[in-house]
Amino acid sequence: MNQETDGFQFRKILILSGGHFSHDIFSSFLAIFLPLLIDKFSLSMALAGAFTVVFRAPSLMNPLLGFFFDRSNFYYPAIWGPAITACAMSLIGVAPSYGAVCVLLLFAGISASMFHVVSPVMVAQAAGLRLGRGMSFWMTGGEVARFVGPILGVWAVSFWGFEGCFPVMLLGILASLFLHVQLKGPASGTATEPEHQPSKSTQSLGRVMFPLSGIMVAVLLMGAPLAAFLPTLMVTSGKSLWFGGATLAVLEGAGVIGTMTGGTLSDRLGRRKMLAMAIPLSALLMLAFLYAPDWLALPFLVLLGLTLFSIAPIELAIVQDHCAGQRGTANGLYMGISFAITAGVTVFVGWLSDQIGMQAALTVCAISGLMGTPFVLLLPPRSDAEISRNQNNAKHQAL
Asked: What are the strands, taking DSSP E only, across 191-332?
């Protein structure tokens, strides 16, 4: 099977993955800025965790945005999202109050929500039969960003100071200008193919979202607190901000490999089989990292990144597998649920950390992550009709 017969448009997927990188490199700044904001405004962990709620709140609009994008050719959020998010996140250091930080995070959250609804649908259309591989490429762009982002954020703060690091936004603006040149034109739209039947896609969406939501809760109970609080955990345990940023970079760096391989392997081995292996293994590795001696902590963190981050592209591929006729709506619903769970989990873990300590709170999250495994058995298998339809669509795109 080659790119000509399976409809895999490598160049377009690579550009969209680069857009994901240029966007998420700035949204990853929040974890690095969090210890500085806690110190600047004398915040509790619960109030600090509420920043994530504000940032994720616009994701509640994602299902409506997806419904709109299914019926339009409006793809500009995939182009200008990096610039808008970069400007908002880079100005956090000069915000004079807690409320001002929340306003900036709200603007960044709106941009991020629209970007993450539109871009995966465009990837799905360009991936043809190799949907898992396409989602792996796109998610890898985000994971590379979350590997580079902490390093860039710490460097910007060290070079310019927290209140003076806003010039770094120029990188996001330049990225959006590049995407504008490369993706402009009607071929970049997200409108759904007319041959799909929305009623059937709606039924498929209902069957897949319940078990998938259970899986998402379990996975995000592990991943969201680590992404938000890992540098803070290191700093509060006596390590430097540089070391805190480095541990997050190690996790995300391993996640790059996990993300790249997860969706691709699921094309060959099956989505459900991959999830059934990755979820419990991630929970056990998270516990091992939390209680390992210092010389074993980083190796366990690498293994955790490989397994935990392999799950997201598989989830995205499952959504696109079952809802090919309403991919924008399905992706919007998935992203909305994902971001809402992330916000709730982050606030909960922040509050729990105030009560019992951060290590104990993360231990609760790791044990709770095991509950996602039974939901894998409830996921519906792909039907032969769906596979045949996707093959026909891929051949049509190749022609």
From this structure: none
pLDDT of res. 243: 79
Tell me how far apart the alpha carbons of residues 365 and 85 are, in angstroms, rounded to a whole number.
29
Query: Which domains does the chain possess?
Result: 3-398 (1.20.1250.20)
Q: What angle do CA 48, 53, 56 make, to 5 degrees?
A: 135
What tokens were used for 378? 């409830």
Question: Which residue in 388, 385, 319, 381 sits closest to 134, CA to CA?
Answer: 319
* Distance in angstroms (rounded) separating the CA atoms of residues 393 and 399: 10
Give strand ranges (E) for the chain: none
Average pLDDT over the chain, rounded to an integer:
81
User: Which one, of 372, 31, 90, 6, lies nearest residue 222 by Cα?
Assistant: 372
For residue 123, name the pLDDT band (cuts at 50, 70, 90).
confident
Residue 39 has a CB neighbour count (10 Å cut-off) of 11
Nearest CA to 52 out of 252, 333, 347 is that of 347
Closest CA to 121 of 175, 80, 66: 66
pTM given for the model: 0.69
282 close to 306: Cβ distance less than 8 angstroms:
no
pLDDT for 294-343, tens place per residue? Answer: 888 889 999 999 999 999 889 888 887 776 666 677 777 887 788 778 87
What's the number of CA atoms in the CB half-sphere (13 Å) around residue 268?
A: 6
Q: Say whether pLDDT at 344 is over 60.
A: yes
Helix, strand, or coil (residue 2): coil
Cα–Cα distance between 130 and 135 in angstroms, integer? 9
